[in-house]
Amino acid sequence: MKFQASFVQPPSVAAWLVDLFTPQEYAESITGDLLEEFSALASKSGVALARRWYWRQSAKTVVGLIGTGFRAAPWSMVGTVLAGFLLLEYATTLPERAIVAVIHLRNHHVTPFYDSKGLASHLFWLNNGILIGRLLVSLIIGCFVAVAAKGREMVAAMTVGFVSVVITVMIFGVLVAKHQPVDPTFLPTILIHQFAGSCMIVIGGVIVRESRSAMSRRSSGV
């Protein structure tokens, strides 16, 4: 039983998440300690129990690392998150302005005519083009935020995404409370788009973090 347990690997997704949030200077010690305790528990109590323990411990470790990321450099983290959010608020309007400018230039000397089917198709491609552009912008901003927050890439990217969603909901709520001409039924669509953008920001952080980890492993000869 002990011989077999020594070759059992912990849940790969849980191990990847811990590695994703762990600063590179502590990666070996933290992941090594978790793996050592996992192997000992697997030998003593079985693989299934050890895997459940590893998931719970990984979640606690990730939460602790997020808190540590803010406590270690609070002003730097706040500045990075604020800059990322402001850049996001400015840059997400660029795709819409670019697409509208192209359409305006194209139709500058021509008055377009759309039947109902053509108008629906036009609006479909316009809306989806703007959405795709905003998602790409969110991905790029996530990469920029992660580059600026070296060692705390995921904490910064996740915080920018979270703040973006919260502020969007707050603004929408204020407009509705003040009886502005805003249709409340649009809120689910807005939240879906905002959540998708936040996911792209986090993905940008993952890309930068994984790239840095790969470079670190190559430089160390692992």
Describe the 3D structure.
- Helix 7 (116-148) packs across helix 9 (187-220).
- This protein has helices spanning 2-5, 12-21, 27-45, 47-72, 74-91, 94-106, 116-148, 153-177, 187-220.
- It contains nine helices and no strands.
- The chain is 82% helix and 0% strand.
- The chain folds into two domains: 2-71; 73-220, no CATH class.
- The chain is an all-alpha fold.
- It is elongated and about 65 Å long.
Q: Uncertain segments of ≥5 residues (pLDDT<50)? A: 1-6
Average pLDDT taken over every residue: 80
Helix content: over 70%
Task: Find the structural class using helix and strand composition.
Answer: mainly alpha
Oligomer: single chain
Distance between the termini: 30 Å
Number of helices: 9
Q: Using DSSP, what is the number of strands?
A: 0
What's the story with the biggest beta sheet? none
General shape: elongated
Tell me the Rg in angstroms.
23 Å
Order of helices and strands: HHHHHHHHH
Give the number of domains: 2
Strand content: under 5%
List the main descriptive attributes of the protein structure presented here.
single chain; 222 residues; mainly alpha
